[in-house]
Amino acid sequence: MNFKESHHLILNNISRFIHLTELEKQKYVSLLTEIRVKKKDFLMQAGEITKYEYFITKGCLKVYTLDEDGAPHISMFAIEDYWTGDISSFMTKEPSRYYIKATEHSELLGISRTNYDVLFQEIPKFERFYRILYQRSLISYIRRSNHGISLTAEERYIIFKKKYPQIINRITQKDLAAYIGITPEFMSKIISKVNRM
Amino acid sequence: MNFKESHHLILNNISRFIHLTELEKQKYVSLLTEIRVKKKDFLMQAGEITKYEYFITKGCLKVYTLDEDGAPHISMFAIEDYWTGDISSFMTKEPSRYYIKATEHSELLGISRTNYDVLFQEIPKFERFYRILYQRSLISYIRRSNHGISLTAEERYIIFKKKYPQIINRITQKDLAAYIGITPEFMSKIISKVNRM
DNA sequence: TAAAAGTCTTAAACTAGTTCATTTTTTTTC
DNA sequence: GAAAAAAAATGAACTAGTTTAAGACTTTTA
């Protein structure tokens, strides 16, 4: 059996948690859709019902909401080997409040809501895969929500820099500010202060 | 087959996502441990390795960390029909950074780490149950982490009050402040302001 | 490759939230 | 049910982070 590079990447990601036979691998990749999105283009926009859960094989994207004043708040940056999407809209089939925009030319594999359900019927082992995937995401979001209410912006910046060195060089300071939850002006002050230390 | 009241509660919670046969129900409840904890007593403390994932059948508990200054930051309040614990320490078997303290006399059902693994082997359907449970928790923590960095304390208070009316009357204003992420003094100001509106 | 658009920096005036100290009110305990 | 302990309220002085504005630097686009 011969898989393309993107399929190798996603199968390798999955193999960290569950073991699949060659036949299951074939079945699984047959349920995926390939998606390309150019820099600055949207993978999805607020108001739409999320059609896919995504796995990034190349590039970088930002997932964000806009508040009443039109200010962006970035929920996550997704690069190669990351999963992303709006799990809430994907599950409830209600319109999303999120935008997903490529900050670099990106390539993704998507699984549609229909195929997501088929997947569980045909290869129940995937319940385990997603159980573990969501469990791990949950751990990091519990931590992030605690940091948001208990740490200063400077502390959150230092943690982000340490935890995601491979991301920080690929994003603008403005987007980093929208992720940390402060204005770009204050982000600029923090960075020059931390660098001076 | 005759189950006690607490077993009825937990089985009813589980039946929202998966269907169990009578035999599976019996098997499942045999893996649970009953726990009682008096008001102001700890269910667990920072430094311990989390032994159980908990389901609350009666009472109210707060899950919190202490920062370097000794100030508490509450991650969640758990009441009847809620699941709680420290999923990170439970999975990694590393010492927890959380305290769980009963704010009322409470009764819980716990599943140990060993039995959690046995459960998946014996009733693989539980992978699906936990997949859905974690997926839903994830959705609410993603939202909470966004609120923490994008909303004012007053907005977070109004949202909490609307979303958890059954909890707000059971907790102190001080604990609410530790959940919202502000000082008790500022919480007091916000509440009197919002009530005046 | 010049012009336009977007990003980053700096600074002054402002606001949301903290700190500290004191008093009042409510809850707990014996 | 009185005394002690904890929670809530209030206010003044403070700090982290915002707003607005303007200039310098960098990237994108025609």
Automatic annotation (TrEMBL), chains A, B:
Parts forming coiled coils: none
Residue ranges of domain Cyclic nucleotide-binding in the record: 16-120
Superkingdom assignment: Bacteria
Entries under InterPro entries matching the protein: cNMP-bd_dom, cNMP-bd_dom_sf, RmlC-like_jellyroll
Record-given protein name: Crp/Fnr family transcriptional regulator
Organism: Ulvibacterium marinum
